[in-house]
Design brief:
By secondary structure, this protein is of the alpha/beta class. It has a domain of 178 residues: Rossmann fold. The protein has an eight-stranded mixed beta sheet, with helices on both faces. Helix 9 links the parallel strand 6 and strand 7. Helix 4 runs antiparallel to helix 7. The longest helix is centred in the middle third of the chain and has 20 residues. It is globular and about 50 Å long. It starts with a strand and ends with a strand. Catalyzes a proton abstraction reaction that results in 2,5-elimination of pyruvate from 2-succinyl-5-enolpyruvyl-6-hydroxy-3-cyclohexene-1-carboxylate (SEPHCHC) and the formation of 2-succinyl-6-hydroxy-2,4-cyclohexadiene-1-carboxylate (SHCHC). This is 2-succinyl-6-hydroxy-2,4-cyclohexadiene-1-carboxylate synthase. Its EC number is 4.2.99.20. It is an enzyme of class 4 (lyase).
């Protein structure tokens, strides 16, 4: 069964299709501002399971989400595409790209996505933490859980106003659907993708905010060009959409370029 999605035609002669995947708590609108400045491509904005129009799609594993993603691409007859994903969407994009059945995939752009934890104990610890968050989503008032979620260290660069805006934006989510997706796609359940990513035969680029210390350090260990978005933390495409779009446009113009790009 395909996921809910929105297809948008290019504002000028199309050079291809970009498929956009949002992060946890987001939806297909997440990338609209950035995509508006990537005018020479058609866009497919997808609602991941448990989110937006796909809130009723309950995924049970990474492989299941990948099947749903493939079915969605087929339903739109998308044969050649670039895949762009943020955070959870970035993790799903990396998983998709490393499964060996993506002949139409032209390139991969990931913002703030984790390639996977190396050892079993660390994965077990993360799964337990995500299970506790999932239980909170099921049982506590959503706005309170969201406030605590956006006070985690990775979101430390958010101002009070930015945090409140995100809470208001995310408060329409269905808590049980979020909890199910969080548990089924926990970083603790994700296979480590480092080796598979290093063997990709398509362009792979990594974006993160210059103030996102955790993912900036992680990205430095990847075999992929690192693009830093100025004046931004973990949620770089929201904090500086114009620079993010400029960076993506540069990547798409020179897909095999290996130099670092400071946007």
């Amino acid at each position: 069964m395909p996921l809910a999605a929105q297809f948008q035609t290019a504002m000028s002669a199309s050079r291809g299709v970009i498929v956009w995947l949002h992060g946890f708590l987001g939806d297909s609108r997440e990338w609209h501002t950035v995509a508006a400045d990537v005018a020479q491509y058609d866009h497919l904005f997808i609602d991941l399971p448990g989110h937006g129009g796909s809130a009723g799609n309950e995924a049970v594993s990474f492989a299941h989400v990948n099947q749903l993603l493939a079915a969605t691409l087929d339903s739109y007859n998308i044969l050649n595409y670039w895949l762009v994903g943020y955070s959870l969407g970035g993790r799903m994009a990396m998983f998709h790209a490393t499964q060996g059945t993506t002949r139409g995939l032209q390139g991969l752009i990931v913002e703030g996505g984790h390639p996977g934890l190396h050892d079993a104990q660390t994965r077990a610890t993360r799964l337990a933490a995500d299970s506790r968050w999932a239980q909170r989503f099921r049982c506590e008032p959503l706005r309170q859980v969201l406030d605590d979620w956006y006070r985690q260290p990775v979101f430390a660069t958010l101002s009070d106003a930015q945090r409140e805006a995100l809470i208001t934006l995310r408060a329409d989510n269905q808590p049980a659907a979020l909890a199910a997706m969080l548990e089924s796609t926990s970083l603790g359940r994700q296979p480590p993708l480092w080796d598979a990513l290093s063997r990709l035969r398509i362009p792979f680029h990594y974006l993160c905010g210059e103030r996102d210390a955790k993912f900036r350090a992680l990205a430095a260990t990847l075999d992929a060009p690192l693009h830093l978005i100025t004046g931004a933390g973990h949620n770089a495409h929201r904090e500086n959409p114009r620079a993010t779009a400029c960076c993506i446009n540069a990547i798409l113009r020179t897909p095999t370029e290996n130099s670092h790009d400071l946007s």
